[in-house]
Amino acid sequence: MYAINMIKKLDNNLRGPSEHNVRDQIVEAAAEYFSRYGYEKTTVSDLAKSIGFSKAYIYKFFATKQAIGEVICSNTLSAILKAIDEAMVGSPTASERLRRMFKAVVEASSQLFFEDRKLYDIAASAAGEQWQSCTLYQEQIKKIILEIVHAGRESGEFERKTPIDETVNAIYLVIQPYGNPLLLQHNLHLAEHAPMILSNLILRSLSP
Amino acid sequence: MYAINMIKKLDNNLRGPSEHNVRDQIVEAAAEYFSRYGYEKTTVSDLAKSIGFSKAYIYKFFATKQAIGEVICSNTLSAILKAIDEAMVGSPTASERLRRMFKAVVEASSQLFFEDRKLYDIAASAAGEQWQSCTLYQEQIKKIILEIVHAGRESGEFERKTPIDETVNAIYLVIQPYGNPLLLQHNLHLAEHAPMILSNLILRSLSP
DNA sequence: GTTGTGACTATATTACAATATGGTCACTTA
DNA sequence: TAAGTGACCATATTGTAATATAGTCACAAC
């Protein structure tokens, strides 16, 4: 569901017909090549050859190579969002949702790091260069936090004195070093314990 | 005070007499050169020429170039610790000490970034490569947090149910992205608001 | 023992020419 | 009009030979 939102919003730097067989072929080839050889090492010509067209034709669909990277990155991050969503399903309380969310963010991102490093690197550099795909991802994370806090306040589980925006912002800032691929790299050694310890801290701060 | 502690512990990779005029000259020259031209761009020969000795003589006092870098880095971080100490002086409450500490960490580090970028870069790469000077710095920060939490618990300002180690660890993890030069780089845009918002969150989590 | 160095090596860095790549455009074909 | 491309340009990247640097060591002077 988040995936669909993200891709629809990601229409910048796209060209030509939005629904087109060739566009899909390009994305498919890019997923393959970027994942296997990395973003830098695959050339636009590689993608063109792979689908049997000329390089020039690629540029009928994407304004830049980065625009292709954005789509791949967006798909990657959408998969993480999906994993987060699934991890939260069936949580009995808002507290539990928050714990699961935090844990899922870290686990999904770490897994990407270890199992699809090339795609992870794209996400990391995308975060560093503030690609649209990344800022949309962060927005979604914030939205999830807002929903959790809102629900927790409604149910009386969380305190209501602090302005909700500040609460959400603060929680987001705490999660950020583990949710942002660019930062997670430097915090991987903490990936095992930090979510638990920080979830505890956040939840203590939320107690009425 | 922290400075003294740190330097004393930093005797790894040092050679020859520990108290020696020439050692001081080397450090002095290194402070000058590293700050002006950066760690990578200054050569050991530069330092040697600058103090009128041969390069080989430098290696009578330091086992590696990095060992010289460690001293400079250590001094830099000690200055930050000093600034933190001074910022906390006269705080009426533990809460206030924590606020001031967090603020001072970010301000001192940001200031280093903007006003002595070359030295900042040394600290950042030192953090990335886990130099001793950096791990000692982080220990000191943790120690300061422990003292604040301890005092706050004694005075009844903070809750006492959570194991104090977990509390300290959690607070440390929250501050880390702003206190660690390697991470601060990516969070500079948050340097203005994050300390306040996160201090608030931490203090809510500490309320009895 | 302490102070001090020139000469040396293996590795790292630079400079730069050769090559490759991102991106455009006029043009063809159906 | 939509599908598709070869030729082209400016910049980025690479390969590599020349240079520079970190670090050692045997040795000299006092």
Structure commentary:
- The first copy, chain A, has 208 residues and is mainly α.
- Chain A folds into 2 domains: 13-63, Arc Repressor Mutant, subunit A, CATH 1.10.10; 68-206, Tetracycline Repressor, domain 2 (Orthogonal Bundle).
- Chain A contains 11 helices and no strands.
- In chain A, helix 1 (2-9) packs antiparallel against helix 5 (65-88), helix 2 (21-37) packs across helix 5 and helix 6 (94-115) packs across helix 7.
- The relative contact order of chain A is 0.13.
- At the A-B interface, helix 9 and helix 11 of A face helix 9 and helix 11 of B.
- The structure holds a DNA duplex (30 and 30 nucleotides).
What is the structure about, briefly put?
Chain A has 208 residues and is mainly alpha-helical. Chain A has helices spanning 2-9, 21-37, 44-51, 55-58, 65-88, 94-115, 117-128, 132-154, 164-179, 181-184, 194-206. The longest helix of chain A has 24 residues, at 65-88.
The overall pLDDT average of chain A reads 92
Number of strands of chain A: 0
The ordered H/E elements of chain A are HHHHHHHHHHH
Main sheet characteristics of chain A: none
Number of domains of chain A: 2
Intertermini distance of chain A? 32 Å
Assembly state here? homodimer
* Shape summary of chain A: elongated
Report the top-level CATH class of the largest domain in chain A: Mainly Alpha
Could you give me the name of the CATH homologous superfamily of the largest domain in chain A? Tetracycline Repressor, domain 2
Largest interface: A-B, 27 and 27 residues
- Compute the number of helices of chain A: 11
| CATH fold assignment of the largest domain in chain A | Tetracycline Repressor, domain 2
Over all CA atoms, what is the radius of gyration of chain A? 19 Å
Second-tier CATH architecture of the largest domain in chain A: Orthogonal Bundle
Low-pLDDT windows of residues of chain A: none
